[in-house]
Amino acid sequence: MGPPRLPLLLCCLAPLLVSPVAAEFSPSLDSDFTFTLPAGRKECFYQPMRKEASLELEYQVGRAGPAGLDVDFYLLYQKGETLVFDERKSDGVHTVETEEGDYMFCFDNTFSTISEKVIFFELILDNMGEEGQDQEDWKKYVTGTDLLDMKLEDILESINSVKARLSKSVQIQTLLRAFEARDRNIQESNFDRVNFWSMVNLGVMVVVSAVQVYMLKSLFEDKRKSRT
């Protein structure tokens, strides 16, 4: 068996923060997370990777304040090398082939002073080395497979194919749910904004109508009666 998987670490960083706050996730090759990024703050996540593995990351801003659905994103290798940098984007998908070591990806909202962001991201790790080792262990317990029309390797290949397709379906459905939540939040925000400005326009129209009625009434008043 290979070495145990290390958990994904969450580290909240701020410009004036002295010591980062870390949170631990349960070990998993596929992880998704939703968090709130306050205005003027930055949050970073750390993920250890194996050599010749694959790291795929999808993110999107699901809800934000009046400043808009945008955030800065960057992915760094432990040697300080910047692999990916997205400036003021609402979503993105990135895949990198990894080396042995720790990778850090950050969401930066320091450019905003009033608007917090709700960010969803999904992390998919491939070729981490453990699943293949687990699949090899069963072979030493199997004998006499030459008499079978279908070898156990073929059955395992079919099962792995179905498992991969199911996992991909789950990932796509999770991403679609995140997009649906973002669209619903945008629609609710637009609905509230339309109602607010409609009430403002209605109030202005009522005030203008009252002023017009008063002015017209004053024009047709008999000033001679007022003098007598």
The computed structural class is alpha+beta
Helix content: 25-40%
User: Helix and strand string, N-terminal first?
Assistant: EEEEEEEEEEHHH
Beta-strand content bin: 25-35%
Residue runs with pLDDT of under 50 for 5 or more positions? 1-27
Straight-line distance between termini: 111 Å
**CATH topological fold name of the domain at 9-149:** Jelly Rolls
CATH class value of the domain at 9-149: Mainly Beta
Give the rounded overall mean pLDDT. 75
Radius of gyration: 30 Å
Largest sheet: 6 strands, antiparallel
Overall 3D shape: elongated
CATH architectural group of the domain at 9-149: Sandwich
Tell me how many strands there are: 10
Report strand order across the widest sheet. Answer: 2-1-4-9-6-7
Helix count equals: 3
Membrane topology: Single-pass type I membrane protein
Subcellular location: Endoplasmic reticulum membrane; Endoplasmic reticulum-Golgi intermediate compartment membrane; Golgi apparatus, cis-Golgi network membrane; Membrane
Family: Belongs to the EMP24/GP25L family.
GO cellular component, one term: cis-Golgi network
Helix and strand arrangement:
Layout (H helix, E strand, L loop, with lengths): L8 E5 L7 E4 L5 E8 L4 E8 L4 E11 L6 E7 L4 E8 L1 E7 L3 E8 L8 E10 L3 H8 L14 H68 L3 H5 L1
Antiparallel strand pairs: 1-2, 1-4, 3-10, 4-9, 5-8, 5-10, 6-7, 6-9
InterPro entries: Emp24-like (IPR015720), GOLD_dom (IPR009038), GOLD_dom_sf (IPR036598)
Membrane topology: Single-pass type I membrane protein
GO biological process, one term: Golgi ribbon formation
